[in-house]
Each structure stands twice: as C-alpha cells, then as structure tokens.
Amino acid sequence: MLVAEQSVFTSQDTLAQTERDVALELVALYKTVGGGWEATGREERRGNERS
C-alpha cells in the first residue's frame, strides 16, 4: 500500500510540474508573438478617470 501511495504522489507531482511548464511556455509564446494585456475591470475604470 505504501509503495502504491508513493507512486501516486510521484505521478501527481510530475503532472503538476508538467502543467506548470506548459503554462510558462504559453506565456513565453504569447510574449514572443507580441501579446500584451488589455485593461479590464478596475484598471480600465482607473484609466478612464484620468482622461
């Protein structure tokens, strides 16, 4: 039972690391192709107040 739990933990840890790596690569790709943020919500209202 302990070996099975250790295997599950290792698999879950590997999955979490892989998901993190995918997210980081997506951000890098987005930056590379010139992506940027658009103001929404509170930031957008703040920008309009200054105009």
Radius of gyration: 20 Å
Beta percentage is: under 5%
Q: Based on helices, strands and strand pairing, what is the structural class?
A: mainly alpha
Number of strands: 0
Count of distinct structural domains? 1
Helical stretch tally: 2
Quick tags:
mainly alpha, elongated, 51 residues
Would you kindly provide a written description of the structure presented here, covering whatever features stand out?
The protein has one domain. Helices cover 78% and strands 0% of the residues. The longest helix is centred in the middle third of the chain and has 31 residues. It is elongated.
Question: Can you give me a brief rundown of this structure?
Answer:
Helix content is 78%, strand content 0%. With 51 residues, it is mainly alpha-helical.
